[in-house]
Design goal:
This protein has about 200 residues and is mainly alpha-helical. About 65% of the residues lie in helices and about 0% in strands. It has one domain.
């Protein structure tokens, strides 16, 4: 098995990625996060971000933000392409994604989400949801590695606009509200909840 910067195979990378996702899942379980939705049902899709099933099922509108993570990680790591094989860059991207998946479920971050964003009832992700979020990130990375950058960029923008129009949130809005909450954005987002 060649683990040199230029020599790791995609098969080895896939094994490392699977191990990281499993480690992240184990960490969440040890932190007390539920394996799946506490409602007792497992669904492929949950579209209501205001329900108790948000961030608990296989996928939800925020899954698109994890695809965006993958695209952005691909392009952030692209300057290293002469020194690191695509397989290593995928492993690096997943190390970041899985680390964030664990960090965002700590009490400090979940409390911040509830205080500063529209996620008033957010108590973290289920292990199921977080594991699939990581897989959506892999999908985004894979898409970015195969698509022309303009198409990938258009997909990122289209996803952000679609999420803003449908759930009044997106990756960019989520970051803004987590780091520097703005009353105008919060009121606009809350008005969507009141309408829904």
């Amino acid at each position: 098995m060649d683990l040199s910067p230029r020599g790791m195979s995609m098969r080895t990378a896939a094994i490392l990625v699977a191990a990281m996702i499993a480690a992240g899942a184990g960490a969440l379980w040890l932190m007390g996060q539920p394996l799946s939705c506490r409602c007792g049902e497992i669904a492929v899709w949950s579209c209501d971000i205001w329900s108790s099933q948000n961030s608990q099922q296989v996928a939800d509108p925020y899954s698109f933000t994890h695809i965006t993570h993958g695209v952005l990680f691909f392009w952030a790591l692209y300057p290293l392409r002469r020194r690191l094989a695509l397989s290593w860059r995928l492993v690096a991207a997943m190390a970041i994604e899985v680390s964030w998946g664990v960090a965002e479920n700590t009490p400090m971050v979940t409390n911040r989400y509830r205080e500063a964003t529209i996620s008033l009832d957010y108590f973290g992700d289920s292990v199921l949801n977080s594991s699939f979020d990581a897989l959506f990130c892999v999908a985004g990375f894979a898409l970015a590695s195969r698509l022309p950058w303009r198409i990938a960029a258009l997909g990122v923008v289209a996803s952000a606009v679609a999420l803003a129009l449908t759930i009044r949130d997106s990756l960019l809005l989520n970051i803004i509200m987590l780091l520097v909450p703005m009353t105008a954005i919060r009121e606009w987002q809350a008005a969507g909840y009141a309408r829904g």
